[in-house]
Design brief:
single chain, 737 residues, alpha/beta, seven-stranded mixed beta sheet, four-stranded parallel beta sheet, 25 helices
Amino acid sequence: MTEASHHRICPLCEACCGLEITVKDGRVAQVRGDAQDPFSLGYICPKAVALKDLHNDPDRLRTPLIKRNGQHVEVTWDEAFAEIARRLQPLQAEHSRHAVAVAVGNPTAHKYGLMTYFPRLARALGTRNVFSASSLDQIPKQLACGLMFGHWMTVPLPDISRAQLLIVLGANPLASNGSMWTVPDFKGKARALQARGGRLVVIDPRRTETAAVADAYHAIRPGADVFLLAAMVNTLLAQGWVRLGAIEDWVQGVAEVQQAVAAFTPLAVAGRVGMTAHTIVSLTRELAHTERAALYARIGTCTQSFGTLASWLVEVLNVLTGHLDTPGGVMFAKAPAFASNTLGKGGSGRGISTGRHHARVSGAPEVMGELPITCLAEEIETSGTDQVRALITAATNPVLSAPNGQRLARALASLDFMVSIDIYLNETTRHADVILPGLSPLQDDHYDLNFAQLSWRNNARYSAPVLPPDERPAEWQILLKLAAIAQGQAPDVDVNALDDAQFEQDLQRLFGPHASAVQATCQGLSGPQRLLEVALRSGPYGDAFGQKPDGLTLAKVMAANGGLDLGELQPRIPEVLRTPSGKVELAPPMLLADMARAAADLGQPVPELVVIGRRDLRSNNSWMHNLPTLAKGPYRCTALVHPTDAARLKLTDSALAQMHSEVGSIEVQVEISADMMPGVVSLPHGWGHDLPGARLSLAAQRPGVNLNALLSDQARDPLSGNAVLSGVAIRMTALGA
């Protein structure tokens, strides 16, 4: 019997916990937390244990599928790529380059081959119809940070290990382990904060798992975050509590912000927010007068029509209270590779831009190179020049994860051609003509490109394959092959030769006369490994290709089981800034102008009943419902209803109810809970595994219902294009047992 221990970064959520995986005779025997990992220190959640289930899942695809006569059948890789060339190239020749759309999902962020090579496919297609899951949960935060600091990934992170106060708004890090804040074992860190005399305060329409361990909890009406935050900024300025601290010389726009929030006094917003004016002032005072404090907000503040404004005002508060770029406040990670805010001359840059093109039908602006995924169905359905006729997806399931999935499903069924890179035949990929399965995470190497830029502590961690790969191509090779086909090449093109040629071109562009010397340091590497080597060595901790002998190389990171600790977050202003002014832009004109929309909405009546989503530790994504370790236990797809609402609507615990919206209706199982704010119902996302043609056998046993069937694909934050998933008006009627 052979036995070996392997170190792996968990690829199932943003926490990126370090794992120690024991393999016996070629099979996974045990998954546990890696106590030597400098980032997660041995912590794991149940999702990590389910990696074994994922690898062994009989429903996980291992062979390409082609749809023939309405049924998906197994084929060889050569047959699959030949079919793609046969159908895609004539379609491109007949229609414009924008007739082929691409869409990617959250799991892409945990596959560095997909992350580094997907842009090559998009460029090869030349399409402006690029969609992703980002417009379902995070683009408002990235847009606000991009406008203020100059880059989409320059996101302030709570320095929780040194904070005295952490205020959490519309987020549940105890369940998510952070979101756009990579912070494993949040509960342990929160307890440490409290043990040193600090306080945790939670503001949310539901008394979440995070609120349950907090020192104080305040309920807030869904969608009212912008009013609370504007009133807090108003209070700071009115009371003279503003202090900019060490970054004072690098901040501009305070006067403009003061004018923008003038009408949003605590008394004016209290009724809409659902808090007293006294509570709003008290929260502001505590944030302003605690030496080391941070305000953190996430998905609840993003998935609403004022998502960008709310995200902006969070950072305005952190700036005006002197907590930006200060230990114990909110700080910027310094990632060792692939971080644009560490490249080039620090302190100024081009900033960001939006609206470089617009959606053909709705006119929604491009943001971060993408169009809102809620525009995809109408782009397929609406005839005319540049109508989407073909779609390539990667690791995404928008039929379940996006609003009005029933409409999107009908649109996907009408496409001329669809290709999916996915490990499951799910509610979205069932519409694909060709499905190309990637490797199991345990067969793939990995490095976290994005999450190292969002981490609570600076680190460098590489994961080698735990199990040997089989004969299928890696995802980066699949993407290169598709890119070559999109450019008219034969399906049997040598993708490794293509990659070599592209790598040489990239080095010439980046290093000029030194390109040959840099290339020599990458001998024996290929694909994303080769890109990682260059990024590490030329990054802020790198060896500069031998000029700094103590610096990082890929070999050094690989040799460090569990990874390398690069230390606590450090002040980075002005070096981190990439705005044209070289300042923190506190008052971007786009955001100031949108405050008029918020002011007009402040007096609008509040619906009697609204629905919000929720996250569960065991179901971060829809496909996790097919894994036994995560699927077991109590039924989780329930509608949480406050007792007073249940009594008024004659709803009973565990009985069924009909939930109606302007878009549709679903039947839900009621769970009466005092954790809910009156007038608010909570239903988790990612369920609804009862659609024909999908092969998720375990998930289908308890399919749940799809919250997004109630949500309109026309409701968006106009600045970011993010879908409105929270605070949507509903009605509920009892159905009985």
